[in-house]
Write a structure and sequence with these properties.
Blueprint: E1 5-12, E2 23-37, H1 47-61, H2 71-79, E3 82-86, H3 96-108, H4 121-139, H5 145-152, E4 156-160, E5 163-166, E6 179-184, H6 191-201, H7 205-228, H8 231-248, H9 258-267, E7 271-274, E8 282-287, H10 290-297, E9 303-307
Antiparallel strand pairs: 1-2, 2-3, 2-4, 4-5, 6-8, 6-9, 7-8
Length: 308
């Protein structure tokens, strides 16, 4: 029986983690995927994974893959009907490629680092590096964070590129008015074009300064407030982040969504931010009162992920 790998949500740190801001990602157990065998699915279901295998072979030969995978066993299984059975929507920023990478590492890693051993930070960094190398096939550049969350099924706090570890979340309040929620833009996003836009923006000195001085300040403060359970303070920082995202990351926000985004900032009923790379898929919302915010967002099927 192969293990289940769940989706993830990057609560804070989108794009900033590329430039050493803090990040916080949590498992999202609503969606999941697992490796399965079905001899009748040998061609269509295996084709995208076969292309991934070929890429792993090529980059393994050049030394770009830091941990050893049994690629011969992987190929043999693919010819015998291996496929990834997943409910995680693709292009929605909740870790579809991350879960696949985690599942393949779990099954084929030769010197596997087991999740139970990851109280050792060096092992977490080794996993993150390996997953970054694997997932770059899908996104051009990957921090490795998504597969790491999917593999460990634990919240992960990134303090810096070299300081990554598991963390405890504040307790949820089942009857709380406040909420963190997902909104469905109704269209998938593609990570690589969005990352390319970001990397182009990074060539501008003004954008780099904004990222270091404004984005990092409010992003990191949001994470610290959330982990301490200081939700009022968190919301005030999120308000600033929402403005920063709207002003500087607008290409990553679907155009039809701009009005909804602005409405939240103007009314204070809710604040929106990117969920992952943006461009479509899910967006994240934060509100002091979900029942008041919900009627304004009903077109996007709001789905609560955390109550406070």
């Amino acid at each position: 029986m192969n293990n289940l790998f769940y989706a993830k949500i990057l609560l804070f740190g989108e794009y900033g983690i590329i430039d050493d801001s803090m990040g916080l990602s949590i498992p999202f157990n609503f969606y999941k995927g697992t490796l399965k065998f079905d001899p009748n699915k040998t061609t269509d279901a295996a084709r995208p994974i076969l292309a991934f295998l070929e890429d792993l072979r090529r980059r393994n030969a050049t030394g770009e893959i830091p941990e050893k995978l049994d690629l011969d066993a992987f190929e043999n299984d693919l010819t015998n009907g291996l496929y990834f059975d997943s409910s995680i929507p693709q292009g929605f920023g909740v870790g579809s490629s991350g879960a696949l990478c985690a599942a393949i590492y779990d099954r084929y890693a030769v010197d596997k680092i087991v999740p139970e051993s990851t109280s050792n930070k060096n092992k977490v960094l080794r996993l993150k590096k390996m997953f970054g190398a694997m997932e770059s096939y899908f996104h051009g550049k990957s921090s490795g964070l998504d597969p790491l969350i999917c593999y460990l099924n634990l919240p992960i706090l990134i303090r810096s590129k070299e300081d990554v570890g598991t963390v405890d979340l504040p307790s949820q309040v089942a009857t709380g008015k406040g909420a963190i929620f997902l909104l469905n833009t109704g269209q998938p996003g593609e990570t690589q074009p969005m990352v390319n836009i970001f990397m182009e923006k990074m060539k501008q000195e003004g954008f780099r300064t904004m990222l270091k001085q404004q984005f990092k300040k409010y992003n990191d403060a949001s994470i610290k407030a959330f982990l301490k359970g200081e939700f009022k303070s968190m919301l005030s920082h999120i308000k600033e982040l929402s403005h920063i995202a709207f002003n500087h990351f607008s290409p990553m926000i679907p155009e039809k969504f701009h009005g909804t985004w602005e409405k939240g900032m103007e009314s204070g009923l809710y604040y929106l931010k990117l969920c992952g790379s943006g461009g479509g898929g899910y967006m994240l919302g934060f509100t002091p009162d979900f029942e008041k915010a919900e009627p304004h967002l009903k077109d996007y099927q709001p789905e609560v992920v955390f109550r406070f």
